[in-house]
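Hi D.,

Good news: the full-assembly prediction came through. Inputs first.
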Amino acid sequence: MPDGPLLEINAIDAFYGDFQALFGVSLGVGAGQVVAVIGANGAGKSTLLKCIAGLMHPSRGEILFENTPTTKMPTFEALKHGIALVPEGRRLFPSLTVEENLLIGGQSRRPGPWTLTRIYELFPVLAERRNLPAPTLSGGQQQMAAIGRALMSNPRLLLCDEISLGLAPIVVRDIYARLPQITAEGLSLVIVEQDIVQALRAASHVYCLQEGRVALQGNARELTREKISAAYFGV
Amino acid sequence: MIVEHATRSSRIGVGLIAIAVIVLASAPYWGDRQTLRLLAEMFTFIALASLWNLLAGYAGLVSVGQQAFVGLGGYVLFALAILFDVNPILAIVVAGPIGGLVAIPVALLIFRLRGAYFAIGTWVVAEVFRLLASQLSVLGGGSGISLPASMVLAMAPSRQIREFEMYWLALFLTLATLAAIFVLLRSRHGLALTAIRDNELAAQSTGIGVWSIKFAVYVLTAFGTAMIGAFIFLQKLRISPDTAFSVNDWTAFVIFIAVIGGIGRIEGPIIGTIVFFALRQTFAGLGSLYLLMMGAVAIVVMLWAPKGLWGMIVERLGWQILPLQRHLVLRKKDVRGKS
Amino acid sequence: MQWLNVIVQGVLIGGLYAMFAAGLSLIFGVMRLVNIAHGDLIVLAAYVSLIITQALGMDPLTSLVLVVPIMALIGYALQRGLLNYTLGDDLLPPLLVTFGLSIIIQNGLLELFTADSRKLQAGAIEIQTFKLAQDLWIGALPLIQFAVAVAVIAGLQLLFYRTALGRALRATSDDQPVAQLMGLDTRHVFAVAMALSLAVIAVAGVFLAVRANFDPAIGPARLIFAFEAVIIGGLGSMWGTLAGGIILGVSQAIGAQIDPGWQLLAGHIVFLVILAVRPQGLFPKVSG
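Then the structure:
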């Protein structure tokens, strides 16, 4: 096990054109750790994940993954490092079937415990629909497929962008119930959520973003409701 | 608050244009025959490129088939003159509306295609026109036809006067085309066009009838292109399907001019024509090598200076020769009386 | 019987048109790019075959072994070195750049080979014919060419829907950023798609060169045939493209039978009628 955190983000600024979305954000994720990033809409949570995955690049600061700088990494190299993103809104490939979506997740052939069979064990409903076009699945099933697709690359770090978005509470509970199986082999997780309850339950460490800044961070068990509310809404 | 169009540079620009027009109009008195022919050719290209620019740069309709209307105008002229004994100058005027009318069913058909497929569709239409023209044996079929000597002589008392008349006609047609485009762009519809040019989706969301504007612009452009085409072939005194509907002459060169000069800016085609003719005079002897170079330059410009030469100048210096910008001017009385 | 003959000839040349169209359709499907230089690249392939057959003494069909990889390589370099930079939301750059490319290729070929008409000789196979029925003969070469066209289209279908590469191509065309998240370098994926397109163009170009006279200027007409076949058949469907090519071929053949000057016009008219009456084409793929 290498020394130091798996992922280290040091004071990054991120811009969309002239609009600044992140101000000096710092964050760390240890090996095998589950970290939650919460915050209101527009707080910068998705931007943060995009920077980690290489979909955008911070204009200041640095990102280190397993002590290697990945700040300017092109998107397609994220997988090589072991970073996988479950994008906001699922974004399965509409021209592909469920199984093809999973297979393409694994097309880089990284070694590891996750195989097609194991994904189908984790999410049996996907096995039933394996040859159907991805868009025919329900929201919850698509979310499972998106998670499965990301897992197929055997990542070291899995980034989940708002997996509860648009899903019924019972479906959300169902998905979150499987997280322990996902992290069983030591996979690290960053969960971006608006559903604070699930996020706090799943994570050991929490960061709260407010208008692009880290307003609060700490151990999930230790933070009080009041502190979180204050940080979330910027009161 | 009022909307003003002029800027300091455009005030200078308008003055310069006025001087230029006077100089050009007097060219028969100081220029020789070759100069007049060259200038007339430049004028027709400025007109064609300006019309193409309106279509592609403002309405977002990229056509690689405008030669359809150039040739149509030419054939209308020859048909009217030879078959119906119409005065050639009058025939030019008639070619415009005929071009516009033909453009209506054409547009209804090819507007079903989008983007680059639309472009190829315009090419197919031009090919159809070319093939149909080859079938017209009464106008020379595949080998074409010349304007009868009697008609040519009837146009003017002497060759020199005829050439002066042709020159002034070219100048007039081009100025009229530019003026019409300018008036359109200054108008409310022009504002809509500029919006479409900048961001079509956003323009649509403000309630602008994008389809009908594009349709109107296509028809009007065909109108103008047909008139210019009629003039071009009147000057050449001879027409054939291959020359009338030549992709190289009426599309490749025109696009090159528009791209080099700057698409989406009214001054672009003028700059582009000057550069094109300067290059042509310099490299004339090279034949197909010249065309090859032209293609390469167009690619380089498209990738590295997509706004063309004039676009670069506008970005750096904010100039405009013609007062087309719109800026709000706050007057004292707008500000007074506010707390 | 004569009309049956005409239709059969039309069907067979339709296969060639379908091959012209397959490359165009592939690229449009994967990266929404319409390559205006498509027809000129077909002609380029014909000239490459000319050079190879002259230099190495091969017959044209054998030269495919070299022409296909050469054209594929050209396609990869073209996409990676030039066309990748034109991709994006704006319509003008890819259109104008490929238009410029078309001019460059035509005039480059003109400089190198002059405007002389050429034709490649395939040998005895060119005059061989089969008798199908009373008064109905089919040339061996057109038949082979049709069979190859069907094989190419079947091959492309197989590639797209049953291989990892095909998955990668479909995924990249669906959603470029997410495809990159899957570890796909989309610059490379697009370049492979172009290489594939040019490989198909290579086959089409060689068959064109054997079948008829060619010179540097005939590119644009091939582009138009390819385009018409795609639109008649319907966007997004390879088999539709085959049908479109056949319909175009048959239309032209019938037109030519009525009057030789009507050959091309007949094809264009059928295209325009289909555009007017069923603009989505005859067999469009239903968007998923």
